[in-house]
Amino acid sequence: MNVIEVNDLLKRYPQRTSKEMLTAVDKISFHVKEGEIFALLGPNGAGKTTTIKSICGLLVFDEGKIKIKDYDLKAKRSKALKQISVVLEGSRNLYHRLTPIENIQYFVGIRGKKISKNEALDILDFLRIKEKANEVVYTLSRGMQQKTALAVCLAADTDVLLLDEPTLGLDVISNVEFRRLLTNVKEKGKSILLSTHDMALVEEIADRVAIINNGKIVVCEDKKKLMDVFSATGYKIKVRSEDTLERELDKIGITQITKESNIYDLTVDFKTSSELYEVIDFFKSHDAEIVSIEKQMVNFEKIFISYTNGDRGRQN
Ligand SMILES: Nc1ncnc2c1ncn2[C@@H]1O[C@H](COP(=O)(O)OP(=O)(O)OP(=O)(O)O)[C@@H](O)[C@H]1O
User: Residue limits of the ABC transporter domain (predicted)?
Assistant: First the structure.
């Protein structure tokens, strides 16, 4: 079952410096399945926050359809919004002059529900910030504020969570801890849609990922499949040869070559792993000695760069 369906979502903003509208999100479609962590990954200005804000009803989109569980966001707005809770970038869904307990009770109250102090403490305990339950939020570290924001989200007890840049600005330890917490939240049966440009976060916890760039989704895929496709292709091969091989290598499609004396460093992308054996045969037939073959490390950075051509985002 899909808990969120986004179809042809379009959002344009007026610009101060020009009469033309800026297309922040350009007819994107994707869905989030029940029980999964779905990541919207993209550089600055890609349209991630605009997408999250459209889904949680914080801004009015121009075209398209958003469905949350069984409810169309435009036709059944309040029912649709009851199905989700959201953590906005920079823990903006908190009152910083209230304590974590007060925030939890206040925001649960707004939803017309009640939560006891002990239930709230249990959530803070789960997120390992119980000892900060009665301290004012603005005195807490960024990581603790982010956990408090997540606590408020969990206290709403919806099945679907939206998290905008959940690890932004966290130090290494908090980042690792937060990733583990999100996995624990998923294990509780929740579905999570998160936006991020943190590739390590995607690599570690996402089930599926949509890479978004300049308002468009450039790929939407199962994370494991994406990683497999890429891991099968990249090799670094070191070869020793007394002959000049450049032209021959070019003929078989190997163009990333550096050479120092008689050692060639080659970067090769194969479409299928059998191509590796063909290349090995090629070197044998040219009396070249293969010094080493290394499978290139696959990480999300490589995948991301390949789909966005290394685009680092919009500069506006
Ligand atoms: N209120 C607004 N008015 C005008 N333009 C906006 C507004 N909000 C966002 N934009 C523009 O829309 C585009 C998409 O912005 P958005 O915040 O959705 O991207 P993002 O992927 O979340 O980026 P970041 O990672 O930097 O937060 C950007 O070019 C941004 O400048």
Answer: 4-239
